[in-house]
Amino acid sequence: MKPIKAIIALIVVAIAVFAAYYYYAHQVDIENIEVSSPNNLPLNAAIQVKLNKAEAVYVEYWKEGDKQSYKTTVSNAAVQHNIPLMTLEPNTSYKFRVIIDRIIPIKSSEQSFKTRAQSPWMVHDWIKADHPHDEKALGNGMVLLCYRGFPGYMAMVDGKGTIRWYWQDEKLGVRLASLTPRGTILALLAPASKDEFNKPNQPSKKSTNASYYLRSGRIGFVGGTVLVEIDLTGKEIARIDLDKKGIIMHHDVQMDQNNNIVGIVRDFRIDDRPNHPKDTLWGDAILTMDIKGNILKKWSPWEKWDIQQDKKLDSLKHDRFHFNTISFDRDNNYLTSSPIENQVWKIDAKTGDILWKLGKGGDYKLKDQELFYFQHAPHITKTGELLLFDNGDFSPRDSTTANKQSRAIAFRLDQKNKTATVAYAAPIPKKQFTARMGSAYELDNGNLLQTSSKTGSVLVTDKMGKVLWELNAYFIPYRAIYVPEETWHKYRQN
């Protein structure tokens, strides 16, 4: 046994000698470390590192006095590095060290920085102590809100009510935003003056500009003039001027698995019915474009619609469909919401055929208590249910506004046999009924994130509707999006 032990000892010594030789023969030094504030935001910091030789590095950082630390992802080998630290807290002291990623890591001494105080227009009592505020109900993620006023911004708020990330535009408000499959944010922007709420419903027949035909009043319109894609560092990847292309994007925009942009746009056809005055009929369509803004295809319901048999057309000719959602089924076909019809439609993305309609008068038989009214945000959850936000407006169940109630409702669909069963229904408090806008999404922990737009409330409820956490906005959020923790894995390890 002794010879074997001796051989093992020699091998260990040889490895140690080789490691030491390799280490000293390839010695690398940190020549300089600087801290900056990208985009002049109090919630971001960037560590600039200069080495004497090209090596991969990462940064370990932690809030001063806190045991929990974070590590950024390892950068590619280079002499100069710019490593972002994000979702920091404002007016807070942090410690960090730079680490050269080698077999034997080389660590800098501890250094520190302090983030600036929060921007004044972001200071708000987002969480009220006398309202439900169990931060664990939200899980480890954050809530993304969009402000369509000026200055327009997107902000991510954590369970404590602290803004941990935001981005703003110098001139435009942010109508709405969505997370893309490649971990970026796609946002629809427009000046606040583009809102169409109180203008006369009937457009001038002399005008051919689509913006004059937007329905207002009870149904309303919030459109967009610019599309922008940004990464989570705030870097602008693409900007598309929709106005210059003559496109009026309406209510929703998403990125598909091919990284193309799919959005709801205004669309029209000429009323050529016999014994009717010639007029322009308006509605919505689904438009697909690439990231440069080149139009790839458009689906219009007018192409499949029998206007001769449409008894509602005369009263709704300036906003016949009013789609407010675009999402994708598991087979990549479209799901959209027609609130005027109180229906969710599935559309073949290749042929444009309407495959089925779910809701009042649709292809699935639903009981009265399962019907939904003026709904928003239908989509397929991770577990396969179709989840939507039932605004509840026009519902015959409640004759007065005081008794009306909005809710999240999810269906298990058998698309082959056209049967639907309710998986769960989670009503929100009647005081937070919202006739327009709103959304409902399922969190990883099984809770629901629901937006009561008209009351400025974002709620986390269980699947029975019990409110566990409430965010209080000072504006009308069109919808709130959940940003899970793994969204940041591109930038940090934990």
Would you spell out the secondary-structure blueprint of this structure?
Elements: H1 2-25, E1 30-36, E2 45-55, E3 57-63, E4 69-71, E5 78-85, E6 93-100, E7 106-107, E8 111-114, E9 142-147, E10 153-157, E11 163-168, E12 173-179, E13 185-190, E14 223-224, E15 226-230, E16 236-241, H2 242-245, E17 249-255, E18 261-271, E19 279-289, E20 295-299, H3 313-316, E21 326-328, E22 334-338, E23 343-347, E24 354-359, E25 376-380, E26 386-390, E27 407-414, E28 419-427, E29 439-442, E30 448-452, E31 457-461, E32 467-472, E33 481-483
Structure, described:
It comes from Sphingobacterium siyangense. The chain has 2 domains: 26-114, Immunoglobulins (Immunoglobulin-like, Sandwich); 120-488, Neuraminidase, CATH 2.120.10.30. Mean pLDDT is 88; it is low at 196-220. It is built from 3 helices and 33 strands. Strands 3, 4, 6, 7 and 8 form a 5-stranded antiparallel beta sheet that branches. A 5-stranded antiparallel beta sheet has the order 14-17-18-19-20, with no helix packed on it. By secondary structure, it is mainly beta. A hairpin with a 4-residue loop joins strand 27 and strand 28.
